[in-house]
C-alpha cells in the first residue's frame, strides 16, 4: 500500500509538471500570435491624386423660341415657321439631320390660370414655346453657332438663350481615360506610402485594402462665373485611397 501511494504521488507530480509545461508553451505561442497579429496590423492609409486636362466630346445647345397670341392655331403656325427657319439655318451651318431634334411643344393658357397676369388681353391669351436641340460631337461647330446666334435675330427670330451650350464628357470618354488616371493616382499613393515608411523606419509591403474613390470633372479654368458644364475644356481628377502594410 505504501509503495502504491508513493507511485501515485510520483505520477501526480509528473502530470502536474506536464500540464504546467503545456500551459507555458501555449501561453508562449499565444503571445507570439498576438505579436504577429499586431505586426500584420501595422499599415498606413494614403491618398493618391491624379489630374489630366481633356476636352468635352459632346455638346448640346437648345435654340428655343417663345410666342404669344390670342389665336392658338395661328400662334402654333408661327412657332412652326420659326423652327423651320432655325433648322434650315443650322443645316446650312453644317449640322446633320441626326444632330438636330425638335423638342416638345409647351402651351400655356393664361385664361385657365387661377391668377391672371395684370394687363392680360385676349391677344396674349396663349404662350407657346418650342426648341430645336443641337446634340453634336463637333464641339467647335456648336460653340461657333452659339456665338453667331445673332444672325437668327437679324432674320426676325428671337431666341431665348438658356445660357449657351452644355459641354459634356461622356461615359465612353471617361472609360477611356480612367485606366491612365487610376494608374497615376495609384503610383502617387505608393510614393506617399514610401515617404511615410522611410520616416518611420519601415518598408512598404502589400496592399491591405484599396478604394478607387471617385472621378471628378471640373472646368479647366475654375471661376465663380464659369460652371463645369459651360466649359468645353475640362480638368478630370481621380482620387484613390490605399492601405499598405508596413514591414520592418
Description of the molecule:
The protein is an alpha+beta fold and 248 residues long. It has 3 domains: 1-41; 43-55 and 171-247, Translation Initiation Factor IF3, CATH 3.30.110.170; 59-167, Protein of unknown function (DUF541), domain 2 (Alpha-Beta Plaits, 2-Layer Sandwich). Helices cover 42% and strands 30% of the residues. The strands form 2 sheets. Strands 2, 3, 4, 5 and 6 form a 5-stranded antiparallel beta sheet that branches. Strands 1, 7, 8 and 9 form a 4-stranded antiparallel beta sheet that branches. The radius of gyration is 37 Å and the shape is elongated.
Mean pLDDT: 84
* Span between termini: 63 Å
Radius of gyration: 37 Å
Overall, the morphology is elongated
Name of the level-1 CATH class of the largest domain:
Alpha Beta
Uncertain regions spanning at least 5 consecutive residues: 17-39
Number of domains: 3
How many H/I helical runs? Answer: 5
SSE class: alpha+beta
What would a concise description of this structure say?
With 248 residues, this protein is of the alpha+beta class. The chain contains 5 helices and 9 strands.
Amino acid at each position: 500500500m505504501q509503495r502504491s501511494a508513493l507511485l501515485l504521488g510520483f505520477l501526480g507530480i509528473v502530470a502536474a509538471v506536464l500540464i504546467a509545461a503545456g500551459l507555458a508553451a501555449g501561453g508562449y505561442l499565444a503571445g507570439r500570435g498576438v505579436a504577429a497579429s499586431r505586426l500584420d496590423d501595422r499599415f498606413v492609409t494614403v491618398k493618391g491624386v491624379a489630374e489630366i486636362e481633356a476636352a468635352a466630346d459632346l455638346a448640346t445647345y437648345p435654340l428655343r423660341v417663345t410666342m404669344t397670341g390670342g389665336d392658338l392655331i395661328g400662334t402654333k403656325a408661327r412657332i412652326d415657321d420659326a423652327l423651320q427657319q432655325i433648322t434650315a439655318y443650322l443645316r446650312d451651318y453644317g449640322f446633320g439631320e441626326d444632330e438636330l431634334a425638335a423638342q416638345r411643344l409647351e402651351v400655356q393658357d393664361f385664361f385657365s390660370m387661377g391668377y391672371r397676369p395684370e394687363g392680360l388681353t385676349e391677344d396674349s391669351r396663349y404662350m407657346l414655346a418650342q426648341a430645336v436641340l443641337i446634340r453634336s460631337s463637333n464641339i467647335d461647330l456648336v460653340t461657333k453657332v452659339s456665338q453667331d446666334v445673332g444672325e437668327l435675330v437679324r432674320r426676325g427670330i428671337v431666341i431665348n438663350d438658356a445660357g449657351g451650350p452644355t459641354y459634356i464628357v461622356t461615359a465612353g470618354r471617361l472609360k477611356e481615360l480612367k485606366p491612365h488616371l487610376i494608374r497615376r493616382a495609384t503610383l502617387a499613393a505608393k510614393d506617399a506610402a514610401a515617404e511615410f515608411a522611410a520616416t518611420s523606419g519601415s518598408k512598404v509591403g502589400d496592399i491591405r485594402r484599396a478604394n478607387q474613390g471617385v472621378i471628378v470633372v471640373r472646368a479647366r479654368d475654375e471661376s465663380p462665373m464659369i460652371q463645369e458644364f459651360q466649359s468645353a475644356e475640362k480638368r478630370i481628377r481621380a482620387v484613390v485611397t490605399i492601405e499598405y502594410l508596413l514591414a520592418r
